[in-house]
Fold these 4 entries.
Entry 1:
Amino acid sequence: MTLKALFAASATAALLLALPANAGQLTIGFSQIGSESGWRAAETSVSKQEATKRQVNLKIADAQQKQENQIKAIRSFIAQNVDAIFLAPVVSTGWDSVLKEAKEAKIPVVLLDRDIDPSGKELYLTAVTSDSVHEGEVAGDWLAKTVGTKACNIVELQGTVGASVAANRKKGFDTAIAKHANLKVVRSQTGDFTRAKGKEVMESFIKAEGGGKNICAVYAHNDDMMVGAIQAMKEAGLKPGKDILTVSIDAVPDIFKAMVAGEANATVELTPNMAGPALDAVAAFKDKGTVPPKWIQTESKLYTAADDPQKIYDSKKGLGY
Amino acid sequence: MTALLPRRGLAQILALIVILAVDRVVSPQFFDLRLQDGRLFGSLIDVLNRGTPVALLSLGMVLVIATRGIDLSVGAVMAICGAIAASLADSHSLPVVLAAALGAGLVCGLWNGFLVAVLGMQPIVATLILMVAGRGIAQLITEGRIVTFSSPDLVWLGNGSVLGLPVPVVIALGMLILTGAVVRGSALGLLIEATGGNARASELAGVGTRAMIIAVYVWCGVCAALAGVIAAADIMGADANNAGLWLELDAILAVVIGGTSLFGGRFSLVLAVLGALIIQTMNTGILLSGYPPEFNLLVKAVVVLAVLLLQSPKLSGFAGIAARLKRTKA
C-alpha cells in the first residue's frame, strides 16, 4: 500500500514537473555535479539567486559526483522539454551521445565551469568557464614573484584524476614556473579535491620530504585540499604560511579564515557566478537569436593577506560555501 | 583439516609484511618514528590513523557478513553521523554530541536490521536504500556545505593523542577489544556464525536468528557512526558529500581480505582489522611512492588481487599438491 502511495505521489510530482511554466518564463534544467566542495555549493546557491533575479525557473539536479546521474538528469530535462540545459560536467569525456540527444531535441546546452572534450564542440551553445590554465598560471606567477631567486621545492595536491580542471590547473602552474629554474615540483599526488584526502596526502608529503624541511611551498588545485593540508602541516609542527608558503585556487571563505590566522598566503578566485553570464547568453539566444561566442571567460583574481581577508571572509560567508 | 586451521591468518600476516617491505623500499623513512608535540609521528602512525575509519567499519561489517548479510550503507551512515556531530559540536557538550551521533548510527542499523530480518529483504538491496538516501540525509543536515566546528573536545577525538598514539587508533583498538569480548567471550559469536551458516537450521535449534541479524546491523551502524565522528573530527568539519564515500567497499574488501566468506558462517574480527590495515598500508605506500596518481587504482587492484590469490583455496590446493609431489619424489 505504501508502495502504491509512493508511486502515486511520484506520478503526481512528475506531472507537476512536466507542466509548462508561465508563458514567456524560461525553464532551465541545471545538472549540477553535486557539492563536492564548498565552492560547488556556492555555485548552486548563486545560480539560484541569479535565476530568481531574472525570473527564470531553474531546476537543479544533484548528480552526487556521478556522470551516469548527470546523463540521466539531462535525459529527463529533454523529456520535460526545457528551454535550455546547463551542465557542469563531472568529467570531460563521454558526453557525446547524450548531448546529441539534446541537440536533436533542439535544446541548447550551456556548459558551466568545466569544459568537455573538443570532439563535442558543436554539441553545445557555449561554455561559461574560468580559464583554469590561466588560474594555474596566476598561482605560479605569484609563487615565482614571492620566492624570488631562492631555490624552492614545491609539493602539489592535484584534483581528481581525469577532471579537466585538475589537468589545466597543473598545466598552467607548470608553465608559469617553467620560466624559473629555481622552482621545482618535487611531489604531486591527487587529493580528490577534498579536505580529508588533502590532509592525508600532505601528511605523506611531509614524511617523504624530511619532515617537511625540504618543502618550500604547497600548491593545491583547490582551497579545500589546502585547508586539509594546513592541518597536516600544523600537526607536524610546521608553520603553514611561514615555513611553507601556500597557494591554492577557488577563494572559498575558509581559506580567508586561514589567511587571517596567517596560515595561508594566496588564493586565486574562481567566481561562483557562472550561471549569470550563462542565463544572459541563453536569454539573448532565445529572444534575438544571438549566437554567443563558444567560450565566455570569467575573471581569475588573486587574493593575498594584503586584501583584507577578514572583510572578504565576511562577504563570502553568506553565499552558501 | 585440523592441520590447516593454525594456518588461518598466515596469508594476511604474510601479505602485510610484504606490503610493509615494499613500502620500505619505495620510501626509506617508512619505519622512522619520532615524538612531535607529545605524539608519535611517522608513516606507520599515519597507516594506523588513516586506517581507523575502515577498521571500525570492518568490525561491524564482519559480523554482518558472518550472518550472510552485507551492509552497503556504512559510508552514508558515516556521513550522516559526522554531519550530526559537526552540527552539534559547538553548541553542545561532547557526551551529547557523541550520544546523538551514535544514536543516529544505531537507528540506521535498526532500520537496516528491520528491513532484512523482519521484512525479509535481500541485505544488498535493503542496505542499498540507506546507502543512496543516507547521503541525501547528510546533505540535508549540512545544507550542502562543509559544516566546520572548533569545539576542542570533538577535535581531540580526531587529532588528540593518548600515550603518544592518535586517539582514533586508541578508539579502534578499544572497539576491537570490546567487540571481541562480547562476541567471543560469550556464545554470541557462535550464534552469529550459526545464523549465517544455516539460518533455518539455527532457528529450529532455538537460535533467535531474527534478533541476531538485527543486532549485527545495529552494531554495524554504531561502528559506522563512530567512524563518521572520527572522520569529521579529523578535518574539523563534516563534508557530507565525501565523508565515507566508497568506504563501504573498502570495508567489505577488508573483511574479505581477512578471510571471512561472503557466504557467512565463519568470521574473524582480528583478521578483518588486519585486512583494513593491509589496505591502508598499501594506500599510504602509494602516496609515499611519488608515482603519478594515475597509477593509484591500478596498483591497488593488482595488490588486492595478489592478496586474494594468496588465500585462494584452489591455489593453496595446487601448492599443496606440488609440495606433496616434491616430497614423494625426494
Note: Chain B is about 70% helix and 5% strand.
Entry 2:
Amino acid sequence: MSVRSYLSEQWSRFRETKFRNLAMQVASLGLLLSGALIMYKSCMLITNSESPIVVVLSGSMEPAIHRGDLLLLSNRYSTPLVSGDIVVYKLPGRDVPIVHRIIKVHEEHDTAEVDILTKGDNNLPDDRELYGDRKWLSRDMVVGRAFAFLPRAGMLTILMNDYPKLKFALLGGLSLLALVAGD
Amino acid sequence: MHSAGTRASILSSYAIGGVFLLAIAIAVAPTLYAPRLPDVSVRVNSLAFLRYLPAEECDQAYIALDINADLRPLFHTNTKHVYAYVTAAYANSTTHVRNEVVVWDRMISSREAADVKVAKGWVKYSLKDWGVGLRGAPVRLWLRWSLMPRIGGLAYGGIEGEPYTMPVEYTQ
Amino acid sequence: MDLIGQERCEHVFQGVLLLSLAGAFGAGWIRESISLAYMVLGAGVAVGFVICTPNWRVFNRNPLTFATSSELAADMAAGSTGKGAASGKAAGGKAGASR
C-alpha cells in the first residue's frame, strides 16, 4: 500500500467519523496525557524531588555522563549527602539545573546544616564561579541525588531543545495520529 | 495475526519488550551477587605544609599519599567507569562536626587501569578547611569509589585507610 | 495464515525471542559487552521475523471448511449440537478474517 493511498484512506475515515467518536478520541487522548501527568507527579511525591527525572544538558561530567543521558533522582536519603555523590542543584535565580559531583561537605555543629561544594568531573576548577557571590551550596538548593542512569534516553529532549520547531511538529503529529487512528 | 502487516507490528512490539527485558536483566544481574571487596590501603606519606590561607580565610594543608588500590573486582558487564577518590574526613569541636573533603580522584575506564598504585603522590586538591579547624585535627582517610553503570543503578563504596593527625601548630 | 497457523506462529516467535534473550544475556555476560548482547538479540529477532512474517505454507495446513447454506438450513431445522459447533467455528473464522 502506498503512503498516499494510506493517508487518503485515513483522511476519509477521519471525515466519516461521527462527532461522538471524535469526542471519545479527544477524551481518551486527554486520559492518556493526564495519566502521564499523574505518573510524573506520583514520582515527585515518592522521591520528594521537584524533578525526579533530569536530562543532562552539558558535557561537564564526561566521561561518566554524556549529553542526553537520563538520571533518576531521589531527594529522600537513607544516608546523608557525602562527597562523591552525583547531585543535581538549582541556584536561586537560575532555571537550568546543574548535574555535578560533591567534593566537599561541611556539616555545622549546632544547626546540622551542610555547606556543599561541587565540581564537574570534566571541569578543572570547582563550581565556586557558578555560585556567584555565595561560597557554598546549601541543602535546599540540592534537587536530588542521582541513583540510576539511563544512557541516551533523553536524546529527544536534547534535539527538541536544539531545534524548537521539532517539538511542535512532534506534538502535532502525535496528537493527529491519536485522533485519526482507529484503535 | 492474519496478514503480514499485523504480524510484523505484533512481533515488533514483542521485540521491543525483549530489548527492555535485556536492559533490565543487564542492570539487575550484577546487583544480585556480592562482589569481592577490593584490596585497598591508603595513608598519608608526608605533609608539605599546614598554613593559614589569608586569601580564602581558611586552613590549608598539602599532603602526599600512598595509595594501593586494586579496584579490578568492581569491573563487570555493566561497569562503564569507576570514579575513585580519596576523602579526608575530620571533625572539629568548634564549628563543624562532619567535614569531608575530596583530595584526590581518578576516573578509571577499564579493568587494566584499575590497579591503582600511587607512591608519594601529591594530592590533586589541597586540603582546605571551611574555617580554621585543621590544626591538631585527627583526619580519617577513605578511599571511595562511585561506580557508573552503563545502564541502571549507581553504586558507591569505600574502605577506610590509616588515620592521620594534623600538626598542632602551623608549619608555615 | 489459518487460525491454528497464527497461534503457532506467535508461539514460535515467543520461543525464538526467549532463546535469543538467554543467548544474548549469556554472551554479553561472558564477553562483558552490552553491544554484543544486543547484537545477538538483534540476530535472534531477525531470524524470528523471517520465520514468522511471511505467509509460509507450514502455517496454512488447517484451512477452514465453511458450512454450505443447505447445511446451515438443516442445522437450524434440526437444532443439532454437533453441526452447530462446526458452523460456529466457521462464523468465528469469518469474523476473524474480516477484522
Note: Helices of chain C lie at 3-31, 34-52, 69-78, 81-98.
Entry 3:
Amino acid sequence: MLRFIVKRLLWMVPSLIVVSFLAFVLIQLPPGDFVTTYIATLAASNEVVDQNTAADLRARFGLDRPMIVQYFKWISGIVLRGDFGLSFEWQQPVSDLIWERMALTLVLTFSTLLATWGIALPIGVFSAVKKYSIGDYVVTFFSFLGLAIPSFLLALVLMYVAAVEFGQEVGGLFSEQYLTAPWSIGKVIDLLQHLWIPVIILAVSGTASLIRVMRANMLDELNRPYVTTARAKGLSEFHLLVKYPVRLALNPFISTISWLLPNLVSGSIIVAIVLSLPTAGPLLLQSLMSQDMYLAGAFVLLICALTLIGSLISDILLALVDPRIRLE
Amino acid sequence: MTDTALSSVDSKRLAVASQWQLVWWAFRRHHLAMAGLVVTAFLYIIAIAPGFFAINDPSQQNARAAFHPPQVIHFIDRAADGSWSFRPFIHPSVFKRDPQTLSAIYSEDKTRKNYVRFFGEGYEYKLFGLFSTTTHLIASENKAQPIFLLGTDRLGRCVFSRIIQGTQISLSVGLVGVLLSLTIGILLGGISGYYGGRIDFAVQRVIEFVLSLPSIPIWLALSAALPQDWPATLNYFMITLILSLTGWAQLARVVRGRFLSLRTEEFVTAARLDGASEGRVIFRHMLPSFASHIIASISLAIPAMILAETSLSFLGLGLQPPTISWGVLLREAQNIRSIATAPWLFAPGVAVVVAVIALNFLGDGLRDAADPYNK
C-alpha cells in the first residue's frame, strides 16, 4: 500500500513539471512581451521610451534571455519564494491577487463535488432499483437534459427567473457589507447563503452523468447471487441494498473524481464569469483579455496543478477502498 | 454476432446479414435513438442550406424593429363573412414609443394580415455556396413587412434566421473538430494498442495527463493568444484545432482498447502469417471490425465539441462576430438587462440543447447497437 502511494506521488512530479511548462508556454504565446505592452501604454500617455530603455527593461526582467532560462527563473521563483511575478494590469505581485480567489474556487469546487454525490447517489440507486418505472424514466429524461444544458445557460436562465419573477439579483458570493470585510463568522455564513446557487448550477451536469454510471453499476450488482442470499436470509430490502450492492457500486464515485474534477473546474470558470463570482474564473478571463500573462499563467498553473492533485487523492482513496487496484 | 439479440428477424436473413445490417436492425428498435437520428438529420439538412430555411437576411439590421417580440403564425384565415380557409398569416405589428420611458412598444394590428408564403421570394443568398437564388421555405408576401418568428435582437436582426444560419457553423465545428481529434486519436491510440509495451506505456501516460487537465482554462489561454485580426475562416479552423487538442484523448483511449483486444484474435494472426504488411493488417483487417464502435464514439464526441464551441464563443474568446454561431448569438443574452426585455434571446440556447440531446440519444443508440454482446 505504502509502495503504491509513494509510486503514485513520484508520478506526480513529471506531471507537475509538464503542467508548469505548459502554463509558461501559454504565457509566451501571444506576440510581443511584457515590455512591448508596457511601452505601448507609456506611449499612450505621451511618454517616449527609446530603444536603450526598452533593452534595459528587457534585461531587468530577463526577457532577453532564451525561453528556457526564463522558464527556470519563473518556476524557481514560484517554487523557492512563492513569487509568481508581477501582474502588469494591477501593478501588484500576482500572489497578492490570486490566493483568496483560488481558495474560493476550491471551496466552490469541493462543495459542488459533495452536492453532486449527495444528489446522484440516492437517485442513481432509486433509478436502478425501480428500473423501467415512471420514476426511472423521469430521472433518465432529466439526466439527459442535464447533460445537454451548458452550465452557463442554466446560470443565465436562473438569473433571468430571479430578476424577472422575484426581482432579485443573483450573483456574487457575498452581500455588500461583507465584500471587503475581513474574514469573520458572519462572512462565512454569508458565503454559505450565496454559495448554494452556483453549487446547484454546477452540480447539475456532473450529477446527470454520475446518475447514469451509478444506475448501470447497481444494475450489474443487483442480480448477483449474494443479493439473493441476503434476501433469502430475511434482510429488509433497505438494509440489504445499503449493506451490499451500494457499497460495491460506490467505487465509481471515488474513481470519478479524476474526470469529474477537470469538468467541474472548467464549468465553474464559465459559471463564475456569468454570475460574477469572486473566484478564479472572471479574473482569469480578464487577464487573458488584457494579455496580463503572468497573472493568467499563475491561474492556469494553479488550476491544473490542483486538478492533478485531486486525481492523485482519488487514486489513493480508490486504492484504500478497493484492494484489487493495488495488485496492478 | 449473437443471434439471440435479433430473434425477431428471420434467421435465414440473419445468417447472411452483414455487420452493418445487424447494427442497423439493432439500432432501429431503439426508439429514442431513432428520434435522435431524425432530429440530427434534420439539423444537418438545415446546416447544408441555411439560406433556404432562413426568412430574413441574418445580418440585416433594422433600427425600427429592435427587440421586436416573436410573432405568431395563424393558420386558419377567417373571412368577414364567417367562412374560413387554410392560409397562414401573421398580424403585422405597429411600432410606438412609450412617452415616458421611450422604450419601444410593439402591438399587433389585428385589422391587417400579412400572408405567409411557402417557397416564396426573399433576400438573395447562395445555395450550397454556388447558386444564387431568392427562394425560401417561408417568406413574407409583403416584402416591406418581415416576419420575426423568434423576434429580433438589439440591432433588429431576425433571431430565427440567425439561429438557422448559426446551425452551419455550430454543427460543423463539431464535425471538423471530431475529425481532427479522431485523426490524432486513431494514430496515437492505434500505435499504442498495436505495438504495446513501452510505447503503449508512454502514450497512456500522455492520455491520462491530457484527460486530467481542466480544458476550459487551456482553451481560454490558447484562444486568447490568437490574433484578433485573422480572417474568419482561419479563426474558425484554429478554434476547432484548439478544441480537438484536448478532445483526442478520449477517442485514443477507445481505439487503443479495441486494438489491444483484437491484436490476439486469430484472424489478425492469420493475416500476419499470410505476409500482409502492417498497414494492411491495421486498415484492412482490424479497422473494419471496430469501425462501428468508433462511429458511436464519434457521435458522442460531437455534442461535447458543440458545447465547447458554444461556451468559448459565449465568453468572447471563440468565434468572433460577424461569424454567426449559436455561442456568438448567446453573447447577446449575456447581460441581465437585455434578457429581461427580450427573453427570446435564449432561443439559440434551446437550439444547442436540442442538438446536443439528439446527438446524445443517437450516439447512445449507436453504441448499444454496435456492441455485439449487448442483449
Note: Chain B has 13 helices and six strands.
Entry 4:
Amino acid sequence: MTTALSVREASKIFGGQVALDHVSIDVAPGEVRALVGQNGCGKSTLIKILAGFHEPEPGTEVTVDGQELSFSDPASSEAIGLRFVHQDLGLVGNLDVVDNLAIGQGYITGITKTIRWKQERAAAHEALMALGYDINVRMPVGGLAMSERTAVAIARAMSTRGAPSKMLILDEPTANLPGPEAERLYALVRRVADSGVAVLFVSHHFDEVFEMADSVTVLRDGKHVITRPVEGLTEDELIEHVVGRKLDEYDKEGHVRAHGDVVLELKDLSGAAVQGLDLTIHAGEVVGVAGITGSGREEVAALVFGGHGHGGEVVLGGDVLPQARPDISIERGMALVPAERHANASLMAQSLRENITIVDPGRHMSLGILRRRPEKADVTVWLERLDVRPSQSEFTMAQLSGGNQQKVVIARWLRQEPKVLVLDEPTQGVDVGAKADIHRMVDEAAAQGAGVLVLSTDHEELVRVCDRVIILRRGKAVDELSGPRLTNDNITAATIGRDSSEPAA
Amino acid sequence: MSEVQAAPRRRINLGFDRFSGLYVWAALIVLFALWIPDLFLQVSTLKQVLSFQAIATIVALGLIIPVAAGAFDLTIGGVVSVSVCFTAWALVNHHGVVVAVVGSILLGIAVGLLNSLVVVKFKVDSFIGTLGMSSILIAVAAMISSQSQIVLSTEGYGPFLDFARGEFLGLPYTVYYAAVIALFMWWILEYTPGGRYLYAVGGNPVAARLSGVRIGRVTMIAFVTSGAVAAFAGIALTATIGTATSIVGEGYLLPAFSAVFLGATQIRPGRVNVLGTLIAIFLLATGVSGLQLAGAPSYVTDLFNGLALIIAVSLAVRTARRRS
C-alpha cells in the first residue's frame, strides 16, 4: 500500500518539556484522518513540524509520497505537496474571492503585466466548482457564509501553482460552523479525498470526526495512543482514549440544590451561534455554561445582557428585557463581567475610581457636584475587599496587572449588588492568586442572594464555582451536569461529544 | 496602607508632565519682557491678548466636549460662519435681536443634531461625517449672506454691538462670556456624571456601553453642545467685528483643535480638559503677540501655532511612552 504521508519517530522537546514523543503515523492517499487529543497533547506541534515552523529532534523522518521533507523550511513543505488551512483561514475579508485566491501565488498576467481578469475569474470559479461550491467569485470574502470562506481557503491551498497537492492539512475546519454549514464542509472534504489527496484534520469536535474521517489518531501527552478506523468506534471509547482513563458511569439523574426564587429565565434564547437556549437561574445559585469554541458559549453573555439583539426572551425578575439595551439590564439589576477585559470592560487611561463608579457616577452627587472624597472612600472599601494591589483609587487602570484589572471590573459590579451576575471567562489571563480571590467573590455574591451565570472554557473553574453546568454543543444545550456528575473530565467529555440528536455513524 | 494612599496626592508635582505649559508660558513672558520691555510689559498687551482670544476660546471650549467623547467636530468653523451670517441677516432685515440670537443658537443645535444623526445613526466616522457637513455649512452661510459682506453700522446697531463690545473693568464682555462658559464646561467635565460618561465613551465605547452608558445619546449631546457654543461664538463675533462674511468662521477651526489637543498634554495628560485648553490658548496667544510686537510679520501666528502644537504633542507622547 502506498502512503501519502509517513511520519517516523517524530519528537520535539521545548526547554526540557517533551511535546512530542516518538510519534509515527501513516496516511494513505484519499484517506481522511482525524487527529484528536486534549490541549497540549502534541497535535499542534506535529502540524507545525509538517508546516516547517518547528525543527524536530534528530531521528525524526517525514516523507510525502516518497519525497523527504527537509525540516523548518516552509518552502520544502509546499514543494513536496503539503497544503495547510489554518483555523483563522488567513483570508482578506474586503477583497473578493479572485483576489484572495491570487494573493501569495501571483496573478495571471499578460506580456505587459496587466492582470488577465477574465482568465483569473474563470480559474477561481473552476477551483471552487471542483469543491462543490458555486460562489460568485467577485463577492468580497467577508460577505460569504462561513463554510464558503473555508471553501475559499481550501481552494486557495489546493490550487497552489507549482508542485501537485498530495496532502491537505486542516486545523479545526468546522469549529465555527453551525450544523448545516458543517455538513456542506463534510461533503467538500470528501470530494478532496476522492480526488486522491490525503486529508489530515485536527479536531475537538467529535461529530466532525465521526462524520468526516475514515480513521482517527489519538495523541495524549505527546505520545501516540491509537490509530484505528472510525467504523466500529464508539464515542465513549474515543473519549476514553483522549482522556486516558475510563469514565465513571455517571448518574443520569443528577441533582439540583434548592435555592431562592427564580431571578433569571432564558426562554428559547437565540442569536449568532446560539440556537434556542432555555435556562432558569434562582437566587443564590451558580450556573455554568461550558462548550468548545463555536458551540455558542462565547455568545451567551452578550445575548443575555443585551450586548447584541437576541431571539427568544430574557426574563429578569419577572420582566422581559428589551433588545440590546445594556443600560436597562443594569437598571433592573443585571451585571456583566465580559470576556476580554481590555476591549470590553476597561477604561485604561482612567482611574480605578472612575472605572468602578462608571455604572452610577451620580451616587456621590450633592448640590450639583460630584463629591470626590466620599466617592474615593467608597471605592477604596471595594479595592480592599477584593484585595486589589495597589489599592489606590487614583491609579490608572493601565498601571495594574491583568489579575488586578479584572478585580476592579468585578468590584464595579459587586458594588451594584446585582440580582443577576453574568461572568464571561472571569479568570482569563489571571494569575493563580487572583483566580482564587475571584472564585471566592463569586461564592460570596451567590451567598448574598445573587443568581450567577458563569461562562468558561476553564472546566476546573466551573467545577469549583458552579452548582450545575449546562453543556452547549453547536448552539444547543445538550446536557446538564451537577452533583457527583460535575467533574472536570465529564465536562470535557460532554463538550466534545457528538450531538445526542444525531444518529450514531 | 493609609499613609501610602495619601502620598501621591499631596506631593506637589514640579515635573514637566502636567504643568509644562505654565513653565513655557512663564518663560515666554520673561523672554519678551527682556527683549521688548517697552512694548510687551503694558496693560494694553494683556487686554489685547485676552480680548483677541475670547472668541477662539469659546469655540475651543465647545469643541472639548465632543473630543472628550472621542468624536471630531469639524463643523465648528462652519457653524460660526452660519451663525455670523444669520445674525447679521436677521438684524439688517429687521427681525430683531431676539430672532437673530435665538435663531443662531437653534441653527447651531440643529447642526449638532444632524452631525449626531450622521455619526450615530448612519455610523459614519465623525471625522468624515463632520467634514462633509462643514462643506454644506459653507454653502449655507454663503446662501444666507447672498455671497456678499453684510455691514452692521455702529449708528444703526449700537445696542447689539454692545453685546460684545461693552466693557467691564476695562475688558470687553466677550472675555466674561468665555470665562462663564469655561466654568460651566469645567463643572460638567469634572463634577457631573455627564463628564464621566463623556470620558468613558471617549476612552472605550464598548466598555462604556456594557457599563450602561448610552453612547449614542452621549455623542448626540456632545455634538449639540459644540454646535450651540460655536453658534454663540458666532453671535459674539458678529457684534465684535460688525461685519459678516460667509468664510469668517473658518479661521477658528484649526486654532480650536490646536488648543484642545495641546491642552490635553496639560494638567491631566492624555485627557482633553478645560484648564489645559485655557493654558494652551494663552500660551499660544502670548507667543504670537510677543513676536508681533517685536516686529514679526503676521504669518508668524500660523507658523507659531503649528510648530507649538507639533512640538508639544510630540514631547507629551514621548513622556507618556517613557512612563509606561
Note: Chain B touches chain A at residues 1, 4-5, 8-9, 187, 190-193, 196-197, 199-200, 203-204, 206-214, 270-271, 324 (CB under 8 Å).
